[in-house]
C-alpha cells in the first residue's frame, strides 16, 4: 500500500474517533438527563453547545491550517477534544456540561478542513474525491460503533466511563499522528520508498510555499461557494437532528430499552458509512459518463438531498419502529452520498493556498445547523410531545439545500479557466 493511503487511513481513524466521541453523548443522553435532571429542552441546549465551539473553529482551524500546516492543527485539535471528551465524565451540572461541550466542539472543528487540505497535498486531482470519501467514511463508522460500545459500557459501568475510555483512544491517535504524518509527501521519510516517485515529483512541482493568487474574500463572494455551503447546511441539519435526537426518539417515543436502542441505532449509520464511501466514486463515474464535472457534482448533491428530504419527512409519520428505522437508513445513505462532493467542489475550484480558509468558511456555515437542529428539536418535542414536526422540518431544510445547488451552482464564467475535472478555477485579475 502506498504511504499516502496510510495517511488517509489515519484520517479515516480520526474521523471515526470524532464521531464516536460526538455520538457518545447522544447514546448516553437518557442516562445523563436522568442523572443531571435535564428535560428535553435542556438536553437540546446541551447538544447545541457543542456546535457553538465547533462551527467557529471550523473556520479558525481552516485558516490556521493554511498558516501553520494541517498536521500541527490536528495534533492540537484532537488532543484538545480528547481531553474534554474525558472531562465529560466529571460533569455534575448543566452549566459544567455546557462549558465542556463548547470546548470539546472547538477541538473537533478543524478536522474536516484539515483532512481536505492534507488530501490535496498528497493526492493527484483524479484521486482526491475518492480519498476524501474514504477518510470521511470513518465518521459514520464511529457513529455506528458508538451505539453498542457506549450503550454496553454505560449499562455495566455507568455513563461516565465511556467518555474516559474514548478520550484515551483519541490521545493515542495523536501520538501516532505526531510520529508518522507530515503535511506534504516530500517532508515524509516513509514516503520516499519505491513507488512514490510520481507523487514526490508532483509535490515538488507544486511547491511547498506556493503563494495565493486570489484573496480569501474573492472566494467567499462566489455564488458557487455560498450555494454549496447552503446545501451542506441542509445535509448537516438532517445529520445533527439524527445524531443528537434519534437515539432519544427510539427510547422516548418508540419505547425501546437502552440495549435495544444501542443495536437498532447502528443500522442507519452502517448505511451512512456505505453512502460516504460511494459518494465520491459515484460523482466520478457520472463525470466519466457525461464528460461534465459540474453536472456530476450537481446530480449527486441534488438527487441525494431530494431523496433524503422525502424519506426523513416520511419517517416522522411512520407507524412502526421498523418503518422509521428503514426510512432513516435510506435518509442517511442518500444524504451521505453528497458529503464528499461538497469538498470536491472546494478541491476543484479553490487554489491550495486558500483551501483551508474557504473550506473552513463552508464548514462554518454548514455546521450552524448543529446549533439549530438539536435545540429546535428539543423545543418542538417539549411543545408538541412528539417528534413528527422535527422530522418534517429536517426534510424541508434539506429540500432548500437541494434547490440552492440546482439554481445557483452554474457553469464556469468567462473569466475562469477549465482545470482538472472541468471545474472553474479563478484567474488573477489585473490590478
From TrEMBL:
Keyword Metal-binding among record annotations: no
Cellular component annotations (GO), alphabetically ordered: membrane
Gene Ontology molecular function, alphabetical: transmembrane transporter activity
Main localization (coarse): membrane
Keyword Transmembrane listed: yes
Subcellular location: Membrane
Ranges annotated as spanning the membrane: 44-66, 73-100, 161-180, 224-246, 266-287, 299-318, 324-346, 358-381, 387-409
Major facilitator superfamily (MFS) profile domain span: 7-413
Pfam annotation, one family: MFS_1
Topology class, membrane: Multi-pass membrane protein
Record keywords: Membrane, Transmembrane, Transmembrane helix
PANTHER family, per the entry: FI19708P1-RELATED, SOLUTE CARRIER FAMILY 17
Protein name listed in UniProt: MFS transporter
Species this chain originates from: Paraburkholderia panacisoli
